[in-house]
Amino acid sequence: MGKTISEKILSSKSGSDAQAGDIVISSVDLVFVQDTTGPLTIRQFKSGKKQTLASPSRTALFIDHASPSPSRQLSNDHAFIREFAAETGCLLFDAGCGVCHQIVAEKLARPGDVIVGADSHTVTAGALGAFATGMGSSDVAVAMSLGKTWFRVPETIRIHVAGKFSRGVGAKDLILHLIGLIGADGATYKALEFTGNAVDSMPMWQRLTVSNMAIEAGAKVGLFPSDRITREYLKKQGRENDYTALAADADAAYERTIKVEANSLEPTVARPHTVDNNATAKSLSNIKVNQVFIGTCTNGRLEDMAEASSILKNKKVHAGVRLIVCPASRQIYSDAIKAGFIQTIIEAGGIILPPGCAGCLGLHQGALGDNEVCLSTANRNFKGRMGNPEGLIYLSSTATAAASALTGRITDPREAL
Amino acid sequence: MRPTTLKGRAFKFGDDISTDLIIAGKYAHLRSNLPELAKHAMEDANPDFVKLVKPGDFIVAGSNFGLGSSREHAPLVIKMAGVSAILAKSFARIFFRNAINQGLPVLICPTDGIADGDNLEISLDEGIIRNIAKNETYSFTKIPPAMLSILNEGGLIPYINKHGDLKL
Lengths: 417, 168
What we know:
The complex is a heterodimer.
Chain A: H1 5-14, E1 23-27, E2 30-34, H2 38-46, E3 59-62, H3 72-88, E4 91-93, H4 100-108, E5 114-117, E6 131-134, H5 137-146, E7 148-152, E8 156-162, H6 171-182, E9 191-195, H7 197-200, H8 204-212, E10 221-223, H9 228-236, E11 256-261, E12 268-270, E13 278-280, E14 291-294, H10 296-299, H11 302-312, E15 322-325, H12 330-338, H13 341-347, E16 351-352, E17 373-376, E18 392-395, H14 398-407
Parallel strand pairs in A: 2-3, 2-5, 3-4, 5-6, 8-9, 8-11, 9-10, 14-15, 14-17, 15-16, 17-18
Antiparallel strand pairs in A: 1-7, 12-13
Chain B: E1 5-12, H1 19-22, H2 34-38, H3 49-52, E2 58-61, H4 73-80, E3 85-88, H5 93-101, E4 106-108, E5 119-123, E6 128-131, E7 136-139, H6 145-152, H7 156-163
Parallel strand pairs in B: 1-2, 2-3, 3-4
Antiparallel strand pairs in B: 1-5, 5-6, 6-7
């Protein structure tokens, strides 16, 4: 019997013939925390008997969620994290470097790796063919110390995407559509594996968007094969040696296959307060927006900056709308400046934030007022997410968000292209 | 060892109770001050929860409890509020594992028959929930053996400190 990508990676990392349903103990290739989960993880680590890192060079701490810090308490947490990095010699990505998941993709994740992070969007690195999953502080503390963790090998749902995306439609619309189809718990405990000709040609920035949101269907991982696109991306990042090819066997056993026709997808929006509550952008044209937020580990990449800038070029953000744009990493920020995207966005009336998570989780940099509507390119629209349970969050692609910033209401981007 | 019989009142919640409803991201500045953080447990789902809950009480919810973030603070503040177990039709994966790692029982069972305020008695060994108010019993899905061994030690860190390794 053939193996899925999950079964292949977990077989290799557990030294056993791992099949869906098995409990395995797997080695861990990269372990990381961020600044809102890191302090508890470090305290859990320090309450363990073994207080040395299994691999300092493959343990990373990120200061991204509250970056730069908005408060005394968080500044103290950041100091605690920096101190731990100095004590142990592990990797530290301080304020300004960017969102952990983007940096993991740029610098650290390798196809075939097992990656555990104290952040649910750790699944993002599935785009590079890594078995990457979010865990809590206790599990991550143990992975830091022992260099291993336990998994139940997940069953896999194959998402087969055929055809071509139409103009103005892309990866974000695909994943929002898919989550609407299977529900916010439609893949709980399962792996998602993406195949099909629309996947074969899907660029890395879009793959990262799709994998990032696998957790919003409850999935443990959202895996792409490691292929030509992966190799090109790693080469561009100066890491071609990290490349290995990886794909499921032709006779791998899937729990089920969901077929999606890329051509039939429309610009899609998730409505408050769950990610599976979706509708077409077109059908929501009566929804006025107060804030548009383009960024995060879902859609804060260079290509998102390019897309936003091309829609905003020589135009002005609608009166009364705050357009907040946040590049996901320093590399993206720098490249977006060189390409002129940042200049265009500023001239259109946008606000640029330093690389990080910004307002996504409601800590700072864009909290909502009562009854305010935000159209965001992030991955979550839960009640209270952006700092206020009385705020209303809609989720969309960057194209839909940029087009809506110009009109002041949710807008099908095909009207602006 | 944990007590094997739990008694308390049910606090009823609906489906899709996210980690933001359990403990909002806006309180991240309190995460190194857990007693302060725990004062905001379940705040956006039921603002009076912390005021009303008594040691031993239960959270009873619908499906997909705990979806969202990996923040282990979510089960932690629920436990600190005094809750002795969470009953739901289903749980999100990371939350389920985090709760076990914090030594907090999470039980998958039918919950439609349980109303807010019902007095419940739960036998963890028998796998039975008795609804005293309604004179009904429900059974819950067995916790997988690997996780039960962690729960029985009071959580993952105590488990590792005792056994020195993962031996599941």
